[in-house]
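This follows on from our talk about sequence and fold. Go ahead and set the record down below:
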Amino acid sequence: MAKKSLLRRAGVLAATLATSLLVSAQAAEPIKIGSFLSVTGPASFLGDPELKTLEMYVEKINEEGGVLGRPLELIHYDDVGNASNARNFAGRLIRSDRVDIIVGGSTTGATMAAVPLVEQARIPFISLAGAVTIVDPVKEWVFKVPQSDRMAAERILWDMRRRGFDKIGLISGTGGFGASGRQQTLAVASEYGIEVVADETYGPSDSDMTAQLTNIRNTDGVDAILNFGFGQGPAIVTKNYAALDINLPFYQSHGVASDAFLDLAGDAAEGLRLPASPILIPSSLPDDDPQREVVQSYAQEYRDHWGTRVSTFGGYAYDGLMLAVQAIEAAGSTDKAAVRDELENILGYVGVTGIFNMAPDDHNGLTPESFRILEVKDGDWMLVE
């Protein structure tokens, strides 16, 4: 009897040990964060700071104990700003790498190429791109960090209206971001009592927009000019605008909200306005601003780690990662449906970009007021509103 009892106890101990080892092994398994970003190529000004931010904060989170007691593992690919590449990499992240969530998509084109795969695989996806079409109409598994181009148009038009402008000239790029921004501006202009009396476009490879700007300048009644685009195009438009000595208020979109744009445009950018997240003016935020602490902390940590200036786009990656972490912690697991549900229920998350309040009918969670109106003064950003 004693021998049988001893064997039973040994068996129980062995089973308990095996279970403990299994639980321990599962607990140690990394939480896989997948990402595809435009780290090189024409949209590298987006993807480079995004990747730097993800790498920095994955490392920091792991040093602090990880998430749910598990380390984070970042698996990322460079899509070079190519939508076809983005789709291929999204498929690889889902099928081969078996990631738990995707935080990425620097551009609207890359994001939209991945959306069908994400929806089919039923995996949470937090995009870092801008166009409203990413989340409108709502897609069950797709969320996004940046304010939409529609919000940017609304904020710009609001500022124009309060300055007394009612007729504007619009110039925009024909790529996904510029085309969507143009469409949204035309759609909401009348709501602000503003008429678009000139409407010009330029292609992604165009190197001179003098003709389009001349057409706008020669249109009767134009009070101000808005350019909607990103990449090299807006800097060229800005330089052409200055060379033509156009004496009209000039606006850009949030697509160029970075110090890199100031480097490209140089003195020609003086006086222009745009909507942006507060990351570009952290020291200008008042003490009672709810975003002050997180914005200043991110800006300082990024500069200390990488020795370079922060950008709006890196801030998108910070918020994307932190929203993912918050949802995983709230779900208590990496169960994809549970994480998706928690993302949809995030309320009051104070990020670098804004204060997020997600909902079943709102997978962005921001308002136009999350944009600050900035103006270029003496080669730097100045807070207007």
